[in-house]
């Protein structure tokens, strides 16, 4: 029987990941330049939540080709755990340090935009898929993925603050934040490498690379 609808789109994205990935890099580069150029900055900021949501969904759609329910359990679980930890962090300061979210990532629910949990999924999945093929033990892969995710946050933090995504109490990024990022990403990585069959699509690390380029451009040329 001919596959239709969403599964057809999933297969197209899976086999055409190079084209989709190239489009990711083009769009994120244009977005970064739009943030630097004053007349378009307000528009870029307003588009941020919808932009990330759309490209994030495109990144995950190819997973439908595998028909592995455990992958979606991991995705939903990672979203819920990270979102709840973010809520706990905002209200108590115990997880990442004292901080609060602005409106740059969308409307907050219990102090946290749901898109934050979604981006956690994208970052952890992208990092895990990137190291998936490395010929090292699974535990080492989980550690490597956690290091990559934490490095991404290190690159992202000053830009996110400058763009009003969130702000830290006292204006300084605490080391506690990076420790929390590492431990949370490590937990997600352990579950990924020890409980899942592995992701086949290459779009998650490509999307993470495009996001990295976005923040790198703004760090270098945006005066952040």
From TrEMBL:
Keyword Iron-sulfur tagged: no
Signal peptide: none
InterPro entries, per the entry: CruF-like (IPR007354)
Record's keyword terms, sorted: Membrane, Transmembrane, Transmembrane helix
Residue spans crossing the bilayer: 20-37, 43-64, 71-91, 111-131, 143-166, 178-196, 203-222
Name used for this protein in its record: Carotenoid biosynthesis protein
């Amino acid at each position: 029987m001919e596959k239709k609808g969403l599964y057809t789109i999933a297969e197209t994205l899976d086999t055409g990941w190079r084209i989709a990935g190239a489009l990711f890099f083009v769009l994120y580069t244009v977005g970064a330049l739009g943030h630097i150029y004053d007349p378009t900055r307000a528009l870029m900021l307003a588009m941020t939540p919808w932009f990330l949501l759309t490209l994030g969904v495109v990144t995950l759609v190819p997973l439908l080709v595998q028909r592995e329910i455990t992958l979606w359990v991991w995705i939903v679980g990672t979203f819920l755990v990270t979102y709840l930890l973010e809520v706990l962090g905002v209200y108590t300061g115990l997880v990442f340090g004292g901080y609060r979210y602005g409106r740059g990532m969308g409307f907050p629910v219990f102090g946290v935009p749901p898109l934050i949990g979604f981006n956690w999924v994208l970052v952890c999945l992208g990092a895990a898929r990137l190291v998936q093929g490395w010929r090292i033990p699974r535990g080492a892969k989980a550690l490597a993925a956690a290091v990559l995710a934490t490095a991404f946050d290190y690159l992202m933090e000053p830009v996110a603050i400058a763009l009003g995504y969130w702000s830290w109490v006292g204006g300084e990024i605490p080391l506690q934040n990076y420790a929390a990022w590492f431990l949370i990403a490590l937990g997600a990585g352990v579950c990924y490498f020890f409980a899942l069959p592995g992701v086949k699509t290459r779009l998650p690390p490509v999307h993470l690379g495009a996001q990295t380029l976005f923040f790198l451009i703004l760090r270098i040329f945006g005066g952040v």
